[in-house]
Amino acid sequence: MDETVVGKTTVAASRASLATARVHLLRSAVTRSQLPADGAGWARFAAHWEELSPDRYAAEQGTCRLRRYGQFLSTPATGELTPLPHVPFAQPARTNPLYEGVDRHFEPLTEDFAADPVLRAVLRLLGRLAGALDAHHLERQGPSVPGRRRSRR
């Protein structure tokens, strides 16, 4: 992908890559060009990382990791993001066999972080890109409930 391309062309190229290769790397410069954030916005966004909590599950494996967890319901047609109730985080064995069958309990996202305009812009951008995966899935699996998807952060 030509990384100097921005706007709808970038999203279209990213979606095409996801639909065919099932993977796509969106470079940081391209990502930043798609987000309405200035220096102060990025500084505010980065400050949320100072409020992460220790991951006790990683600590059991000898790794120091900080995190929080939250989910949003995304409505791509409107760009609406609705925070979902806080629940444990679970991963299937195919993505992380280390924690197969383990419901991991992480601290929830702070209210300020969940409401941060940069986070919401990132989630909307990812939602626009992930639509290619939904379209590919629909072609292979048939229709489902349109227009709503979960975003994890």
Describe this structure in a few short sentences.
The chain is α+β, with helices and mostly antiparallel strands and 153 residues long. The chain starts with 7 loop residues before the first helix and ends with a strand. It contains 6 helices and 5 strands.
Structure report:
A hairpin with a 4-residue loop joins strand 3 and strand 4 (80-83). It contains 6 helices and 5 strands. The strands form 2 sheets. Strands 4-3-5 form a 3-stranded antiparallel β-sheet, with helices on one face. The protein has a two-stranded antiparallel ribbon with strand order 1-2. Helix 1 (8-21) packs across helix 6 (117-141). It has helices spanning 8-21, 28-33, 39-47, 56-60, 111-115, 117-141, and strands at residues 53-54, 66-67, 71-75, 80-83, 149-152. It is α+β, with helices and mostly antiparallel strands. Helices cover 42% and strands 11% of the residues. The radius of gyration is 17 Å and the shape is globular. Residues 1-6 and 136-151 have low confidence and may be disordered.
